[in-house]
Amino acid sequence: MNGLNFDHELNHTSSNNTNPLDPEEFRRQGHLIVDFLVDYYADIEKYPVLSQVESGYLQKRLPKSTPHYPEPIETFLQDVKDHIIPGITHWQSPNFFAYFQCTSSIAGFLGEMLCTGFNVAGFNWIASPVATELEMIVMDWLGEMLNLPNSFLFSGNGGGVIQGTTCEAILCTMVAARDQMLRRDGRQNIEKMVVYGSDQTHSTLQKAAKIAGIHPKNFRAIKTMKSTSFALSPDSLRSAILADMEAGLVPLYLCANVGTTSTTAIDPLGPLWDVAKDYGLWVHVDAAYAGSACICPEFRHFMDGVEGVNSLSLNAHKWLFTPLDCCCLWVKDPSTLIKSLSTYPEFLRNKASDSNQVVDYKDWQITLSRRFRALKLWFVLRSYGAASLRNFMRSHVKVAKLFEGLVAMDKRFEIVVPRNFAMICFRINLPSTMGKLGAYRNAKVGDNGQKLLKEKITTENELNKKLLESINASGRVYMTHIVLEDVYVIRFAVGATLVEERHVIMAWKVVQEHATAILSNN
């Protein structure tokens, strides 16, 4: 029987593969990647913003199994060009106006490179002291830029931590609130606990409630109205709480919003806190998108009342030019997180942790290991400074106002809700042929009027849906939608790092062209 020839394999491998961290090869390949990305950004407007591929496309293009022998980076960089880029929806394109952007920057990218290059798992202070201490510093820096009360900062009695996403921030604070209440009232009350938000609150609140063991029937999405710009009413909150208490339930947690995903609605933090404190609720503020804008003095009033709440989070990866993932969470009482999330196995024991004089961030989050995310935020804050960061955001708001003005000049469209930051909600609004549409809207002409109004809204919804699908299929721009009080609305969110006035003007021309084509066919 012939033996297997391992010598050939060893020789082949050794002649084609260096150490995975060979310094010279690292330098050569690193330059290739940086050059590749620079070219990508230079050409990014040439790509369709929304990927045009069909499901399963990639399996047809790539090999069926892992290569047995090493391949040169040039070979698979070519595959990136040919096969990967076509499947990318280009979030960094200046013609990306969907969802909320994930902004980036040179400083953020370079900080991320360092984070990956050092590759530390800073779960506790001793595992890499600087990873903990830099995070503490930048969280206080950013908190001061936001003019947060000292009670949220390490310089006071609070503190901040960088999580991956808002879902993690909400889950950690909800678990802390849950355990705090269970310690006080007994573990038998877990099935009675109630979580509150508005019907505009991000679905991440409901996901966190599920994970935290809140009974699905005890999740409250309190109705908001267009007449109040979809903000959560303190009176509605109080009514919901009183009804739950009368039913023998236990109010636990309120998530208030500064800039909802649907419309950038602003909940009144102070009045909501006044209600919540009467019943012992933990109040968390989700400022994922708009929180970053509150470093600008002209937007800071949207956070008025934050001094009363228990916790606050924002996503620096949305509008603060820091790459994914970077969710900044501040809490007034870090011990509540630590009591719920801390574990201390023997293999992690050390003198620094035993002294209780250091922060071990593993006790502030769900996972044990954590990345050195503070580096990229530190790079961004130092590279641009508070003044330039404010001006970047103001430039986005300025071009959003331009788009808002263009929409307002075209009588085929309406702006659905007032603009707060850099997002416009708009739709085709057909001229009324009913004559008494205002009366129909006020339900003063009987069932027939309501039927006609419903038919008009249904027709408009279908047209707006067709319009958005047509725009996105063109590949020239990308937008998303929301449904508000049964009305289909198109969202136009400005925020890409590379966006300029010309991109917004072009986007409006695309909207008009496709609207003209659709309306002429209907």
From TrEMBL:
Pfam families with a match to the protein in the record: Pyridoxal_deC
Cofactor: pyridoxal 5'-phosphate
UniProt keyword annotation of Lyase present: yes
Lyase in keyword set: yes
Region Disordered, annotated ranges: 1-23
N6-(pyridoxal phosphate)lysine, modified sites: K318
GO cellular component: cytoplasm
CDD domains: DOPA_deC_like
This protein's UniProt keywords: Decarboxylase, Lyase, Pyridoxal phosphate
Basic and acidic residues: bias regions: 1-11
Gene Ontology terms for molecular function: carboxy-lyase activity; pyridoxal phosphate binding
InterPro entries: Aromatic_deC, PyrdxlP-dep_de-COase, Pyridoxal-P_BS
One GO BP: carboxylic acid metabolic process
UniProt family annotation: Belongs to the group II decarboxylase family.
Protein name from the UniProt record: Tyrosine decarboxylase
Organism expressing this protein natively: Carya illinoinensis
